[in-house]
Amino acid sequence: MVCRALPKSAEVAVVGERMTSDVAGLDPLLDEAPCGFVSFLDDGHVRVANRTLLDMLGYSREELLDKHIESVLAVGSRIFYQTHFFPLLRLHGRANEIFLLLRGKSGEDVAVLANAIRRERRGEWVTDAVLMRVIERRKFEDALLEARRVAEEATAAANVQRGETENANALLERQATELADTHWKLVIQALELDKQRTIAEDANRAKSEFLAMMSHELRTPLNAIGGYVQLMEMGVHGPVTAAQTEALGRVTRSQQHLLRLINDLLNLARIEAGRVDYDLQSISLNDIVLATLPMIEPQIAAKGLRYDVEVPLTLKAAADREKLEQILLNLLSNATKFTENGGSLRIEATVAPESEDFVELKVADTGVGIPADRLEHVFEPFVQVESSHASRVEGTGLGLSISRDMACGMGGDLTAESTLGVGSTFTIRLRRG
Is the pTM of this model over 0.70? Predict the structure, then answer.
């Protein structure tokens, strides 16, 4: 479907001394288009909005006209508009397939992809933007649930067929005279089992396709973030100070880490099957901590947490650098989430007390702790601690499961100790490098 562009002849002055609007002459087809349309000046004030966008956000036309465009953006998208989206429009005159979160009148966030063009019209610079709502996620979730249902049915059917095969074999032993008939029954049952296996393989393929599609949806905005950071580092938007260069470096490292997390999600089945490759090297644990801390320091500072680091400079582990950084970042992120404001964290590395061939890297917190009967379950996929605090923390429940699998893949382990209401300690155990 194509959204018709607003005709220039329809523009009529209706708002403010310097604001003009096309509302009086708005093409009815544009008002009924299946995508949102908004037009705003360089100072951010909205001059045109079609009915689709108004219904999407819950505003009347009078409420939205003359408002600043940032007033209908979620906090993150507002910052992105100031630092990337609008500078990109001024630099190139257009921006395509930009992911934004709009904030409706009720406070609900609406995800859209934006295509925008900035051009001069009657002495003013005006940006026209088409906003297509993103609603595919539910379809992907439904596809995964359907694939899971089909796989369960296939497994149940296979079990039934297996039982029938065993009964047929017993019958062969008792009734030799019916050998021929039983043989054909077994052939039919084998064909049925093959059919069920095909169904199960299709279900697994559907799961893989779902993960691949989700990966694409997540990679698109992350790659955009990386690209805009590179533009700023190149000085496209003006000179960059040393402090800004350092901050941009941290953004880049965080963006790259998120991409690695997406890849790990896609490789979850491979991790369980033991088909993930590990590049083991002698790695300084102090270097790993120094590389990981900057990615979590803003969250630590936001909650007013204290942290101590005691990692000898000479202590090394045989590990895959990227995977060890991911494990440590996941543990630090969890510790920060589940520690109340004013609490403390501690990162410590030592030689394993029971063997000098191993080292231990520990992350301890003074958080809410984990009930004893739930401690071992936190390493299972899609499991989170059931507590009043945990219910307020978002997450998939995959982090600790993937982290333990990766630690085991490097020849080590990941364990946990915790006291409810006192805190938790997670220990990464690896061979000495």
Answer: no
